[in-house]
């Protein structure tokens, strides 16, 4: 990582003695092909909406920007201020886009490490997003050497929608350009100071994922990545398999990052999804589930709060939704649940979407959205629903004064036992009881934040399966 770069400064601020409670960052390696798709998708959200964001960009010595200069002219019409950080030889000054009043060009010195970085920082009360990367050094490519195909070049860094992280990075970028243009630095500092309180408000759209807001952005990211994946089939890449995997990995990252953003808005317990994932994995192990099913459980757990994304117009009530047609010959679709419909944009998440759709069913058939009962409910959905409820009970109990964590486990378990046979599968409640007994006797189950940039291993051929078994003519529905 280049010393003095924005990426290095951000990393250092989140580790060791400087972190001050900040969580460690999750970095990954991205092909340029992936970054182009990501940036196009994030920028198109500006063109499609009236976000009026402050934008700060640095596209690694202008190697990509000049190909998109006209596009940035359109973006400048939707943004009050765009700042472009570039090396002096990038040729930006000759293009009309750089001559606009609201476009500021900062010419970086050749030795400046930021000239080697790829930034896209977007900040507004309704939309925050960021790409922050730098290209691998020649030695990092090892024996394979530097690729000859431009889109196979690799970059190290991260991308996110998280408002606080985007604001923090913008502050670093603004501070860095002060050595070149103190007046612009002061101007941008004032603009960011005006935007920051709005971004940090509880009702700011940028921190409140909905199907109509960030759901639309995630859909666009996935669509762009899928389009690039299709185009790659015609490209003469040296390592097409790795390039395609990188695109697929980032489709998954788009959903994981939205789920993470939802978790961070839960001030009572931002680790809730990680705790649920730990519980479901442990229960799955006690049930001796195969590795592929454990992977599906873990991924569904990490993404389960996406199922709670609301379109603003949908209200679901337990026990009143229409039951599925038992003679159906097509997979059950639940358009009433916007969050799970987002997941269906990625075919490899087909099984995960079905698991999340039905985790609110009840053992007695009085749940929603399909009124499934007993073993008709997918096993993973039954495990997930129980784990979510237990984790929520524990969180609420632990928030009380003079809380006894071990006693709270027993109390939360008793609440679940009281609902077995009605809401929960009795056999799964028994499995949960065994797990809690182990914890009370010293079993350690630490919950850790997922490594979002390396989540592709959770996907396999089983991730595309029809969990309910409705894709073939069959009646009645078979248990999973």
Terminus-to-terminus distance = 47 Å
Structure class: alpha/beta
Mean pLDDT: 79
Number of alpha- plus pi-helical segments: 14
What percent strand? 5-15%
From the alpha-carbon coordinates, what is the Rg to the nearest angstrom? 24 Å
Shape: elongated
Order the strands across the largest sheet as they lie in space.
1-7-6-5-2-3-4
Order of helices and strands: HEHEHEEEEEHHHHHHHHHHH
* E-strand count: 7
Question: Helix amount, in percent?
Answer: 40-55%
Summarize the main sheet: 7 strands, mixed
Low-pLDDT ranges: 311-335, 470-480
Can you lay out the helices and strands and say which pair or pack?
Layout (H helix, E strand, L loop, with lengths): L5 H8 L14 E4 H17 L5 E6 L9 H8 L4 E7 L15 E6 L8 E8 L2 E9 L18 E7 L2 H15 L4 H18 L14 H19 L7 H25 L7 H15 L4 H13 L34 H6 L6 H8 L21 H20 L6 H13 L8 H15 L40
Parallel strand pairs: 2-3, 3-4
Antiparallel strand pairs: 1-7, 2-5, 5-6, 6-7
Written overview of the protein:
It is a single chain. With 480 residues, the chain is an alpha/beta fold. It contains 14 helices and seven strands. Strands 1-7-6-5-2-3-4 form a seven-stranded mixed beta sheet, with helices on both faces. Helix 8 packs across helix 12 (379-398) and helix 9 (291-303) packs across helix 11. It is elongated. Mean pLDDT is 79; it is low at 311-335 and 470-480.
Features of the shown structure:
alpha/beta; elongated
What is the gist of this entry?
This protein is an alpha/beta fold.
């Amino acid at each position: 990582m280049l010393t003095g770069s924005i990426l290095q400064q951000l990393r250092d601020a989140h580790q060791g003695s400087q972190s001050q409670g900040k969580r460690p960052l999750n970095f990954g390696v991205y092909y340029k092909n992936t970054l182009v798709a990501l940036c196009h998708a994030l920028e198109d959200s500006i063109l499609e909406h009236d976000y009026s964001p402050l934008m700060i960009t640095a596209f690694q010595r202008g190697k990509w920007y000049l190909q998109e200069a006209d596009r940035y002219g359109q973006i400048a019409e939707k943004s009050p201020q765009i700042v472009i950080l570039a090396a002096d030889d990038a040729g930006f000054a000759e293009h009309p886009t750089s001559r606009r009043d609201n476009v500021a060009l900062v010419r970086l010195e050749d030795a400046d490490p930021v000239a080697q970085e790829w930034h896209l920082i977007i900040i507004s009360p309704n939309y925050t997003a960021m790409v922050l990367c730098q290209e691998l050094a020649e030695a990092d490519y090892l024996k394979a050497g530097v690729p000859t195909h431009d889109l196979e070049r690799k970059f190290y860094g991260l991308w996110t929608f998280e408002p606080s992280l985007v604001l923090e990075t913008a502050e670093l970028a603004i501070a860095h350009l002060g050595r070149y243009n103190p007046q612009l630095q002061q101007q941008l500092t004032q603009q960011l100071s005006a935007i920051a309180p709005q971004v940090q408000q509880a009702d700011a759209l940028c921190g409140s994922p909905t199907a109509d807001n960030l759901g639309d952005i995630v859909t666009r990211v996935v669509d762009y990545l899928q389009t690039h994946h299709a185009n790659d089939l015609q490209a003469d890449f040296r390592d097409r398999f790795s390039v395609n995997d990188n695109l697929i990995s980032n489709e998954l990252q788009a959903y994981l990052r939205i789920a993470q953003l939802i978790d961070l808005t839960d001030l009572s317990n931002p680790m809730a999804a990680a705790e649920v994932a730990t519980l479901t994995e442990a229960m799955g192990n006690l049930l001796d589930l195969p590795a592929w099913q454990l992977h599906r459980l873990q991924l569904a757990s990490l993404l389960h709060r996406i199922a709670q994304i609301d379109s603003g117009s949908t209200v679901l009530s337990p026990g009143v939704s229409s039951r599925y047609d038992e003679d159906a010959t097509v997979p059950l679709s639940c358009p009433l649940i916007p969050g799970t419909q987002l997941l269906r944009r990625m075919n490899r998440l087909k099984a995960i979407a079905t698991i999340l759709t039905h985790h609110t069913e009840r053992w007695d058939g009085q749940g929603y959205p399909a009124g499934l009962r007993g073993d008709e409910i997918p096993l993973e959905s039954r495990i997930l629903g129980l784990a979510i409820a237990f984790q929520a009970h524990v969180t609420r109990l632990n928030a009380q004064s003079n809380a006894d964590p071990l006693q709270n486990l027993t109390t939360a378990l008793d609440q679940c036992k009281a609902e077995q046979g009605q809401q929960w599968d009795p056999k799964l409640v028994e499995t949960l009881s065994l797990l809690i007994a182990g914890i009370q006797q010293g079993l350690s189950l630490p919950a850790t934040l997922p490594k979002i940039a390396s989540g592709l291993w959770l996907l396999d051929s089983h991730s595309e399966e029809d969990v309910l078994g409705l894709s073939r003519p069959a009646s009645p529905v078979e248990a999973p």
